[in-house]
Amino acid sequence: MSFTKQDIYKALETITAPGEGKSLVENENIKNVVAFGNEVIVDVVIGNPSLQAKKKVEVEIMKAIHEHVDQKIDVKVNVKVEVPTKENPNQIRGKEIPNIKNIIAIASGKGGVGKSTITSNTAISLAKMGFKVGVLDADVYGPSQHLMFDVEKERPLSVKVEGRSKMKPVENYGVKLLSLGFFTNPDQAVIWRGPMASKALNQLIFDADWGELDFLLIDLPPGTGDVHLSIVQAVPINGAVVVSTPQNIALADAKKGVAMFQQESINVPVLGIVENMAYFTPAELPDNKYYIFGQNGAKNLAEDIDTAFLGEIPLVQSIREAGDVGHPVALQKGTPLEKAFEDITKEMVSQLLKRNANLPPTEVVRITTMSGCSTK
Ligand SMILES: Nc1ncnc2c1ncn2[C@@H]1O[C@H](COP(=O)(O)OP(=O)(O)OP(=O)(O)O)[C@@H](O)[C@H]1O
Ligand SMILES: [Mg+2]
């Protein structure tokens, strides 16, 4: 059998990179090709972490080589997942965050629907997939991530980076964390006004030593008021995830949440909707599902407003307990809940990749007048 590396590259040129309209070779997905005897090893990098996407590219590569070069070649494909960096989505108005590739806000309209739970578990799932992840708890009313990550007693250290003092995020479960909770006394109600909140958050993003991050997840406070606009204004968000329960009142608020991001002046793409507390399953009757807040509400809403449905999480006592003791369920290996969060996380990343491929970088929002709140 005789063939060259060039023959292999030619065969790979026939495969189109997902969402790019270019070939895998042209799009620089192919990192290396080794050919010896009747064996070929192809190293390929893709952006989508789902098993399906990995399998698809593997099969396409094998097929192309067998069809265009030789049926008998023994093809091995090494697939690596990396978040694409080529367009640096955070390079906005001169404010660059070179180390943070993607910022995702987790929002809801109604309070208590599970934003913080979804944020912590999704962050852990991302970390387990090998991504570098940070969480910024921006809940000005009641920060909770320091509790969920069991780092309540810790405080971010001050470190010198290139001669400047920066805050070093606290780390646990492979996730870096900064929370407004580190800076407030739990016994004192802190009234954060819009501009104050946006200033604090700005510092937590730009004056912190996050290091390299593939994802920074921002846990937003509930609601869609002034303070939210200030936060969204302060931070270059690439996409938002909206959490809702299937209950009508939560759905109405989720719709407002989506509308807030879609306002012309804000224009942050909504990556999708997560249905939390989708049904109740008692531990002793794991096959029984009780739709106590209604059925498929968030799924239907996603369809109605033409937004992706990212998946559902049931109402399970262990989710609450695990959050309360600072050891989120996504850490429980081999459980259906670990898998449920993993599936949602993969869907979120898929949607983000679509967004990064199809839309220009999100502009930092500029709103000049807002009731009771100056945002300069
Ligand atoms: N799927 C679930 N099953 C059981 N308990 C849950 C689930 N999701 C969230 N909880 C619990 O419900 C409570 C509220 O959840 P969480 O704090 O995540 O909501 P939130 O939307 O962040 O609230 P807030 O609006 O106050 O920030 C917590 O005690 C949490 O442990
Ligand atoms: Mg919360």
TrEMBL record:
KW GTP-binding (keyword) present: no
Keywords: ATP-binding, Hydrolase, Iron, Iron-sulfur, Metal-binding, Nucleotide-binding
InterPro entries in the cross-refs: FSCA_dom_sf, MIP18-like, Mrp-like_CS, Mrp/NBP35_ATP-bd, NUBPL-like, P-loop_NTPase, YlxH/NBP35
Residue stretches in coiled coil: none
Gene Ontology BP term (one): iron-sulfur cluster assembly
Residue stretches making up the MIP18 family-like domain: 5-79
GO molecular function: 4 iron, 4 sulfur cluster binding; ATP binding; ATP hydrolysis activity; ATP-dependent FeS chaperone activity; metal ion binding
Gene3D superfamilies reported for this sequence: P-loop containing nucleotide triphosphate hydrolases
Amino acids binding ATP: G109, K110, G111, G112, V113, G114, K115, S116
PANTHER family xref list: IRON-SULFUR PROTEIN NUBPL
Family assignment from sequence similarity: In the N-terminal section; belongs to the MIP18 family. Belongs to the Mrp/NBP35 ATP-binding proteins family.
Role noted for this protein: Binds and transfers iron-sulfur (Fe-S) clusters to target apoproteins. Can hydrolyze ATP.
The protein's assembly and partners: Homodimer.
Protein name per its UniProtKB record: Iron-sulfur cluster carrier protein
Organism the protein comes from: Tenacibaculum adriaticum
Phylogenetic lineage: Bacteria, Pseudomonadati, Bacteroidota, Flavobacteriia, Flavobacteriales
